[in-house]
Write a structure and sequence with these properties.
alpha/beta, TIM Barrel, 8-stranded mixed sheet, 16 strands, globular
């Protein structure tokens, strides 16, 4: 009886604490939900880490902390769907870099295990409105599993929103799997022969990856048989086990490819094996937009880049997003950076200057990445029931003259102090 009473007391106390969760209200600002029209002079209520009310005629709960944001704009937290934040720090200090392994095939690598919650990159990105990123490992071929993380938390687990959000792969660049020794005299080939050798090497690497995927399917079937008691357990193999959901088409395979031929090759490779594929980078995605639309292949697009070919117009990379938008291709705009993850709104601003509407550009760094990463039920727009990842700016978030004045992650106000502001404070009055 005493144990039951204690259990009831714990449940009651827990419910009371939930009911007494602090309430924060943003009132008076222009609210841009992304999933719907803007709300002038709106009210947004946050409690228990969630958005509990949003609109123009929302009652303000008694005892709430009210933040007057009159004259400012309220946005969903920005999402960078391709970043190395949390996995890198100082490139010249190897001990601070945990983004790349040495082998060609590392599908067993888990980004969320290697996260550094105390990296200086997190507060810098957060201070410019970025509240979540996909932290992705890098490497030569298959580099590992990426994770969606929030930019607030003191442990890797606290940062992680979605582990194993995708598998990262680079389309083969044409180098052979077996690298020649430094002492070997390089073979002298003309351009045509070099191109033939490149295609030959690419095909060999793709065949090796295809073989790994087939082996992963067989390994998965053996694991299923063992769990059903129909056979003994296969020998543990971390590489194949990590590839099982990719081979079955349940875990997205994100393939880094910029050249038109590589993008087409990546789509064909994935289609032939029933893989769920997304293109990373996509510098020449505009050249094959019809194919991407036809095959329903999404692109994580970096905008601030130079054209790939001398014959390309100067704005080829900047207008890329608008061409994909017009063709109906699903895409999100990314930085593919660590320290410069803070520039995410300006990547979108450049695409906006070259063809996207303001609404389309904003969606490309909020709701679209959330949808592509499979977390749109939690973030990406200002809707009741979603995580209270909210930012406030004194102007258009894509205008570099604007300043972020408030950042909330899971309803908790975040400091806007960064290494940059600390150094500025320390040295601004120096003679």
């Amino acid at each position: 009886m005493k144990r039951m009473l204690a259990f009831v007391f714990v449940l009651t106390a827990g419910a009371a604490r939930a009911a007494e969760a602090p309430v924060t209200v943003l009132k008076g600002g222009r609210i841009v939900p992304v999933s719907g029209p803007a709300i002038e002079n709106g009210v947004l209520v946050m409690s228990g880490g969630k958005i509990v009310a949003v609109g123009s005629a929302v009652a303000i709960p008694g005892g709430a902390t009210v933040v007057d944001v009159t004259g400012q704009t309220v946005y969903p937290g920005l999402i960078d769907a391709l970043s190395q934040v949390g996995l890198t720090e100082i490139s010249s200090v190897p001990a601070s870099m945990d983004v790349t392994e040495v082998r060609d095939f590392n599908p067993q690598v888990k980004a969320w295990v290697a996260l550094n919650p105390y990296t200086e990159h997190i507060p810098v990105a957060r201070a410019n409105g970025v509240t979540a990123v996909q932290a992705a490992p890098q490497g030569r071929l298959i580099s590992g599993q990426a994770a969606v993380i929030r930019l607030a938390g003191s442990t890797p687990d606290a940062l992680t929103v979605k582990a194993a959000a995708s598998m990262q792969m680079a389309y083969p660049d044409g180098d052979p799997l077996e690298r020649p020794s430094k002492d070997d005299e390089p073979e002298k080939l003309d351009f045509a022969d070099r191109q033939k050798e490149k295609k030959k090497n690419q095909q060999a690497v793709l065949e090796r990856i295809a073989q790994l995927l087939e082996e992963a399917k067989a390994h998965g079937a053996a694991l299923d048989g063992a769990s059903a008691g129909k056979a003994g357990a296969p020998k543990p193999d971390p590489v194949l086990e990590a590839l099982v959901p990719v081979a079955r088409g349940t875990l997205p395979l994100e393939i880094r490819a910029d050249k038109e031929a590589d993008i087409r090759g990546a789509v064909a490779f994935a289609e032939a094996r029933g893989l769920k594929v997304t293109i990373l980078g996509g510098l020449e995605a505009w050249r094959c937009a019809d194919l991407l639309k036809q095959k329903d292949v999404a692109v994580l697009l970096k905008v601030l880049r130079l054209p790939l070919r001398r014959s390309d117009p100067y704005d080829a990379a900047y207008a890329n997003a608008a061409i994909l938008q017009k063709a109906g291709v699903r895409f999100a705009i990314v930085t593919d950076e660590d320290s410069n993850c803070r520039n995410l709104p300006y990547e979108a601003a450049m695409a906006r200057a070259f063809g996207l509407t303001p609404e389309q550009a904003l969606q490309a760094i909020t709701l679209s990445p959330a949808q592509l990463l499979g977390v749109a039920d939690r973030m990406g727009s200002l809707e009741v029931g979603k995580d209270a990842n909210v930012i406030v700016a004194d102007g258009d978030i894509m205008d570099h003259r604007s300043h972020v004045t408030h950042v909330f992650i899971d309803g908790v106000a975040q400091s806007l102090e960064t290494r940059h502001t600390r150094l500025d404070e320390a040295f601004k009055d120096r003679p």
